[in-house]
What we know:
By secondary structure, the protein is an alpha/beta fold. The chain has helices at residues 32-41, 61-73, 93-100, 131-136, 142-153, 165-170, 188-198, 211-220, 245-266; strands spanning 9-13, 20-26, 46-51, 79-83, 87-89, 108-114, 122-129, 158-161, 171-179, 183-187, 225-230, 233-235. The strands form three sheets. It has a seven-stranded mixed beta sheet with strand order 1-3-2-4-10-6-11, sandwiched between helices. Strands 8-7-9 form a three-stranded antiparallel beta sheet.
Amino acid sequence: RERPKGNYRIVEFNKENNDIIVVIPTMDVNGKFAITCRNEIFKGLHIIFVESGYDNYYFNYAHNCNAGIKKAIEYNPKWIIVSNDDMYKIDDISILVEQLKNINENKIGICYAYPPARYYSATNYVSKIRKIRYLINKFLPIDKKIPFEIKHKFNVNYIISGNGIINLFFYKRIFKFTDPISFMILSSNMTKEFFDHEGFVFDPVYINCPEESDLAIRIHKSKWKITWINYKIGFYIGGSIGTGLQRTIRDTIGAVYFSYKWERKLN
């Protein structure tokens, strides 16, 4: 909780269109990912980039998303799209825009893109770790062993597990939810309510994982309903914040906090 949240600056494009606003955390608003978002994927929409800059060692994804969403709310939009910057175009954005015209933003809290993909709209579970998982850890390579040993040290009992059959062997499923991961469409009214009641949309105690899963679970357990729209978008894996051991350990810290936070609420 005491970890600094890092610096950021807001940069906006196409401010005249405010029914749908896109919030994108990015390292560099002039970088290739941000330019692709601006000129190809979300061309014509009002985009709010939350730029963190290079060598920002205290970068916090949730904190920057919250900053961008707060800025978006000032324009009183109906919908706020939150997207990673490391994406690429498949469907034209007009497909998404037309479908949102027929969805009630006063009842629907989140729209998931359909069909599901590995890094958006995925089926995930809050699961309890089975004892066999601790035994398997003895035979893992070091880069896989370290994160699990951290979880064990801090008594992590609940984690987010995927939809694969092998996960049933290691984890007992407690709660099923749809995980937006890298792309989601949020009702502006819902975000206002979350800010009013909780002080945030994304929980900023997380560093860069799994704040989006945490948000999805809170939405699933709230009065807000969910729906799906037919829209496909491409994604890169770790294009902006990497995929190495440092990220793995940051993610592991997030898993420790997730277990601490949700163990009491899900029992």
